[in-house]
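mind reviewing this stuff:

——
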Amino acid sequence: ESSPESSELALLLANKYQVETLTENISATLNGSACYERRDEAIRTFMPEFGKDWKSKITLPGSLLDDETLNVFYLTAIDPNGNEYRKRIPPKAFSQIVAASNFKQRTRMAMLYYHAERLNYAVVGTANKNEHELGFFVKHGDGGVDLQPILHLFKSQVYQLARYLEIPDEIRSRTPTSDTYSAGSSQEEFFFRLPFEILDTIWFGMEHNIPVKDIANKLNISIEQVNRVITDITQKKKNTEYLRLAIMKLKEY
């Protein structure tokens, strides 16, 4: 269910920097673990009409700037005729959908470590500050790496670095996506709920004790909107802290 564009852009970048590439098809592994069957089984518990050839994605409500809403996930399903269906995902079904979908990230990482060990290489992570600190990664999936060189950078700073390094425009202009769901969803609609330029500015101001009023004036938005984003940042950090914890050890006393 991965987008062909992802591999095309990866090859574009590799060719620019003359990096040797190798393509692995993990479909058999995902099918063997019943990744998609488990996911679709969960979807049908609240959307029985969901068919085998349908596409799907999960998203949060709209922009944090528009309304104060809870981070409750919805499923958007698209049938073969292009008709869309949208329903709120019950908690139990959501857990199974995410658990099944995470097979993909963990299988990708298992394959990366196969080649890393074969070649005596290290596995480098791609998470930025937004993704890591707010919990937009899979534990032992894309989060299970040997080093994280851009973990301290906001997403907007990653784009600045990309311009400096002359990363191809096709990559820099592409809407960020986790490339997980067949219907396709941006990182903004799936998790962050507002553009990175706004999120990063508010977050930077929050970390540097800049008055909320000054942040609001800088972005030409209301104090209420800034506070809404700060609350969302704080809650996501707290709710996903378990993802960042080191392995817990039992001690003898």
User: Anything to note?
Assistant: The first helix runs from residue 4 to 16.
